[in-house]
Amino acid sequence: MKLSDRTKLIKPAVTLAIAAKAQKLSAQGVDLINFSAGEPDFDTPERIKQAAIGALKKGMTKYTEVRGIEPLREAIAEKYRREFGLNYDKDEVLVSCGAKHALYNVFQALLDNADEVIIPSPYWVSYSDMVLLAGGVPKIVATREENGFRITSDQLKDALTPRTRAFVLNSPCNPTGAAYSKGDLEALASILEGHNCLIISDDIYEKIVYDGFRFENLVTANPSLRDRTVIFNGVSKTYAMTGWRIGYALGPAPAISAAAKIQSQSTSNPTSIAQAAALEAIRGSQDEVETMVAQFRRRRDVIVKRLNSIPGLTCFNPQGAFYVFPNIRPLLGKKANGKKLESACDLADYLLEEARVAGVPGEDFGSKENIRFTYAASLEDVERGCERIKKAIEKIG
Ligand code: PMP
Ligand code: GLU
Questions:
Q1: What is the pLDDT at residue 397?
Q2: CB distance 15 to ligand 2 below 6 Å
Q3: Strand pairing category for 323-324 and 335-336
Q4: Is the CB of 16 under 6 A from ligand 2?
Q5: Mean of the pLDDT values across residues 5-25?
Q6: Does domain 60-283 have CATH number 3.90.700.10?
Q7: Which of 393, 391, 348, 355 lies closest to 370 in space, CA to CA?
Q8: For 298-326, what is the mean pLDDT?
Q9: Ligand 2 binding pocket includes 100 (Cβ within 6 Å)
Q10: Residue 41's pLDDT band (boundaries 50, 70, 90)?
Q11: What is the DSSP-derived secondary structure letter of residue 197?
Q12: Ligand with smallest separation from the Cα of 321
């Protein structure tokens, strides 16, 4: 069958593809440690489930406003007022089927053919493909591990051209866990002040930060950027709600209205009862978030220490999110089970076969020399997984 040229520009999300493969192996009875898909292993808190059940019982089973119900948009605006002193009207909020969908809609709404979008690498797998689908051109800027995987202001300055339409910043970052301090953001903001491009601020891991790190974004660091920034966030990671598919965008009304128009011609509103659950998540007690983050931190400490003790691996200590992105360069070119390891992909295949540990190779995140493991898994699995990785890597000759 002839497929559209558009579909040939992109590939399926590797994160989801490997997660599906891992689930299939587990279902077949393979004792697999799954460090692949980035989703909290915790269940959604009970109060949130009850809100959805209540909404269902009350008959909240109809279409809602395309942009999401007003109380939810108001609660999102209120969260930004309360936590950051930022003022957004409910008409500057779009609720979509996950932050992924919100990002897709906004790229569709804001990009024209050949518009350049600066994306620091390593990056989350979907940005460049979403930019391509919208006719844009991803401009990848490789960050350096020595700089904590953060783009420097000199790198940003060099990457900006008259064709630059947008700059994407994801802090804390998937896959590296790197997070930008207020000082880092102020330095980037001073470069952006001189260049009138849009800013895409993906704040989905906002709450998952460690060691007292204080989350900020480019708008909180420099409020003069507010009117050309779209902030993305959602309930998936913070409240263990990946399957509910609720995320959102906050930004200037023209951008939000254009993205809502795209949404009105594709999915319409996100699921009504999931919106009721998200409202409870954002408005209710935030105690469970702290409990979950404390557990993620314990696991991070274990996985970073264990991976750094394996010869051939070095592991950056992330300030946020729930991923590690160890460097595997010394292992490349060596032989594993008689086969030369040419790439992170080869190593991920070897670890799946030999150690029964699923990780995601760095290639689709823009790095050939790293592999991503998520520690959104029980502490026991984190320990067992590291032990298996160690044994398998020790066999590499
Ligand atoms: N941004 C980043 C950086 C992510 O890792 C994810 C994970 N899925 C998303 C956005 C989208 O999350 P969701 O669609 O579940 O809200
Ligand atoms: N963001 C998560 C990950 O990177 C979930 C999968 C996806 O949406 O790509 O694993």
A1: 79
A2: yes
A3: unpaired
A4: yes
A5: 90
A6: no
A7: 348
A8: 98
A9: yes
A10: very high
A11: -
A12: 1
